[in-house]
Write a structure and sequence with these properties.
The protein has helices spanning 20-30, 38-47, 51-61, 68-79, 96-105, 118-126, 166-190, 201-212, and strands spanning 9-13, 34-37, 87-90, 110-115, 128-130, 137-139, 193-197. The strands form two sheets. Strands 2-3-1-4-7 form a five-stranded parallel sheet. A two-stranded antiparallel ribbon has the order 5-6. It is built from eight helices and seven strands. It is globular and about 45 Å long. The protein has 227 residues and is an alpha/beta fold. It holds the Pfam family ADK.
């Protein structure tokens, strides 16, 4: 990868529950790419009860997307700290105005889209529970906690997110369809979109990994210490 000296600016997209977080974590472990999740930033603001966090919660509880100006301000401010590293944005942009604002600030070289059927997502998220303070995610079907209803590390209660409940989830999926699909078309026209389809993250991940191996240096696993 000696020829790949430039910093890579990448985006990971997909509907809620498509496995973006899991894929982003695996990318972080295997490649020299810093991942940045707009969801984590929002979660931090929610937990700290900031003005933006309170505002965002109203929209999230209704299954609506966070307004463009709020998400854009949050994201671009955070990206200023990633000046000397290649990065991967996860969960942003979600609307065309967000994509255009991002493009004005940075040239995006690669957009990866996870394509997972809606029915699979609904089944998956009905079994998803989280540890609120850390953001750790469990799934009763394939990644259950050691003790039912409790976080593995702290023993604190797990909760189901309000926006994972069936009625709210339907609204979220429709919002994605209406507002985020035009973003995919925007990046497709720019020639930077790659789509990965499947019903399971373990099915999609090998394809993502093989593709990234042609784009960005991998982390030397021999040099990294695994506890």
């Amino acid at each position: 990868m000696g020829a790949s000296v430039r910093l890579l600016r990448a985006v990971l997209m997909g509907p809620p529950g498509s496995g973006k977080r899991t894929v982003a974590l695996r990318i972080t472990k295997g490649f020299q790419l810093k991942t940045f999740s707009s969801g984590d930033l929002l979660r931090d603001n929610l937990l700290r009860d900031t003005e933006i966090g309170v505002l965002a919660k109203v929209f999230m509880d209704q299954g609506k997307l966070i307004p463009d100006d709020i998400m854009t301000r949050l994201t671009l401010h955070q990206l200023k700290t990633f000046t000397q590293e290649s990065w991967l944005l996860c969960g942003f942009p979600r609307t065309l105005p967000q994509a255009e604002a991002l493009e004005r600030a940075y040239q995006i070289h690669l957009v990866m889209s996870l394509d997972v059927p809606s029915e699979v997502i609904k089944q998956r998220l009905s079994a998803r529970w989280i540890h609120p303070s850390s953001g750790r995610v469990y799934n009763l079907e394939f990644n259950p906690p050691k003790a039912i209803g409790l976080d593995d590390l702290t023993g604190e209660p797990l909760v189901q997110r309000e926006d994972d409940r069936p009625e709210t989830l339907n609204q979220r999926l429709k919002a994605y369809e209406d507002q985020t699909k035009p973003v995919l078309e925007y990046y497709r026209e720019k020639g930077v979109l790659e789509t990965f389809s499947g019903t399971k993250t373990d099915q999609i991940w090998p394809c993502v990994r093989a593709f990234l191996q042609t784009k960005v240096p991998q982390i030397d696993q021999k040099a990294s210490v695994t506890p």
